[in-house]
Each structure stands twice: as structure tokens, then as C-alpha cells.
Write a structure and sequence with these properties.
By secondary structure, this protein is mainly alpha-helical. It has helices at about 5-15, 20-25, 30-40, 50-65, 75-95, 100-120, 125-130, 135-150, 180-195, 200-210, 215-225, 230-245, 250; strands at about 155-160, 165-170. Helix 10 packs across helix 12.
Length: about 260
């Protein structure tokens, strides 16, 4: 840790001065930008990156307040968990779909319902577009965005027909696991969580950063201040422990080496 940064930390830990916290937040802002970039790549374009950054900064500040250097873990690593968690929690709580698009989606869905009752069949995109005074492509886009924003029943499907071609959107997975498979998987996950807690602190960090944050071994080495080969050794050792605890035959097809 650079000397000037160490001085900031010493002052923050002893005084909890707000101006010092601002300087530390500025210094670690790149961690927030990193997670915003990674998460936003998987989200619809309508999600505001500035909003994600705001959530991430709150996570960073939370990490700053709760960080205990006596635990011998790097702040970068600790903050990464807090930042990512704050962004995901914020997305769960906030309806990020723009109001204008939400209104369009409601209009389209209402029109579909009315036409289905009148026609006694699934309406075409063209028929819906005439009712809501929108282009067929806009109707399709409004429906697609609303599916991302709402939790639907896994077996609920909506089908629209356009020029003889049908478009069906469903959350039903033909290869979905049976209830028995789901129960076994939940038991495995519960057992795996217990065994991960038995790993050493460094092994837990490596497993979490590799499988949950999807960092490469080289990136993890940079976070923990260790060489890539050392991270590889820690990773392999952690997997051997988990496989031994859970049964290598049961785990080998679920965890990639």
C-alpha cells in the first residue's frame, strides 16, 4: 500500500473523518467502475449505468465503514463483495424499467388481452400494433423488455403471430430439472456452502472471486498480491478439499478444473 494511501487509512481508522472518507472513496472508485462494467454487460440497455455506479458507491462506503484491517484481508477484496452485493440488491428493489416503456408495455399487454377475448385466438403483431398505434417492431420490443422486468410463471407463454410466423416467449425449459433433481441440488448447494466455510480465508477468497466474480487466476493474483502460480495452487487445493468432502464422482461434472 502506498505511503500516502496508508496515511489516509490511518487517519480514517482513528478519526472517521468524512473528508478522509471522501479521499478514500475516490481512490477506490475504480473498483465500482469495474463491477458496473461487468454487470451492465448482462443487463438491458435501459438500465442506467449512473444508477448502478451510485449503488456501487454506497456499497463501497459501507465496506469502508465496516472494514477491519485486523482480519488480514485486503480492502480491495472485501470491498468487491460489498460493491457487487449493493448493486444486485439495488436492482432487486428498484424497478429499473423506464416509466415510458412501462406504460407502453401495459398498453400492449392490455391490447393483447382485449383482442384475445374479441377474436378468440392469439392476435398478430399487426393487429396489436393497430390498436396501440405502434409499429409491429415496437410492439415486439415492448413485450420483450417487459419480460425482463417482471417475474412470470415458468410455464406461462405469450405467442404473437406476424405474417404467418409465430413468436413465442416462455420461461418453461424443456430440459428443466424435476422436483427431485431440484431437491438434490439444493442439498448439494447447502452442503457445499458448509464445506466452503471450512476452507482457509485465502481459499474462500479464491473460490469466490473465480466462480462468483468470474475473475481469472491472474486477476485474482493482482487482487490478493500473489503470483498466478500461487493462486492456481490455492485454487487446486480448495477444489481437492471440496471434492473429498462431497465425493469426487458427484462433484466432478459440476466444477471445472
Amino acid at each position: 500500500m502506498r505511503e500516502d494511501l496508508q496515511q489516509l487509512w490511518n487517519e480514517w481508522l482513528s478519526t472517521r473523518d468524512g473528508s478522509v472518507a471522501d479521499l478514500l472513496l475516490l481512490n477506490y472508485e475504480h473498483l465500482v467502475l469495474y463491477h458496473v462494467q461487468r454487470l451492465s454487460a448482462t443487463l438491458p440497455k435501459s438500465v442506467d449505468r449512473d444508477e448502478l455506479k451510485s449503488l456501487g458507491m454506497m456499497g463501497l462506503y459501507d465496506a469502508l465503514k465496516k472494514y477491519d484491517p485486523n482480519h488480514n484481508n485486503k480492502f480491495d477484496t472485501y470491498a468487491a463483495f460489498r460493491i457487487r452485493g449493493a448493486i444486485l440488491d439495488g436492482l432487486r428493489k428498484v424497478d429499473w424499467l423506464p416509466r415510458s416503456l412501462r406504460e407502453k408495455s401495459k398498453r400492449v399487454e392490455a391490447a393483447v388481452e382485449i383482442l384475445e377475448q374479441q377474436l378468440q385466438r392469439t392476435p398478430t403483431l399487426e393487429e396489436v400494433s393497430k390498436i396501440v398505434d405502434m409499429k409491429p417492431d415496437d410492439v415486439k420490443a415492448a413485450l420483450a423488455e417487459s419480460y425482463f422486468a417482471n417475474v412470470l410463471s415458468i410455464d406461462e407463454a405469450v405467442t404473437l403471430q406476424d405474417e404467418g410466423k409465430s413468436m413465442s416467449i416462455s420461461y418453461l425449459d424443456p430440459e428443466a430439472a424435476t422436483p427431485e433433481d431440484s431437491l438434490l441440488m439444493r442439498e448439494l448447494i447447502s452442503k457445499l456452502a458448509e464445506e466452503i466455510e471450512e476452507l482457509s480465508e485465502k481459499e474462500q477468497y479464491v473460490v469466490s472471486l473465480f466462480y462468483f466474480d468470474e475473475l481469472t487466476l491472474t486477476e485474482i493474483g493482482e487482487v490478493l498480491g500473489l503470483s498466478t502460480s500461487r493462486i492456481s495452487q490455492i485454487h487446486s487445493k480448495a477444489l481437492r478439499k471440496l471434492k473429498h468432502a462431497l465425493g469426487s464422482a458427484y462433484l466432478s461434472d459440476r466444477v471445472a478444473m
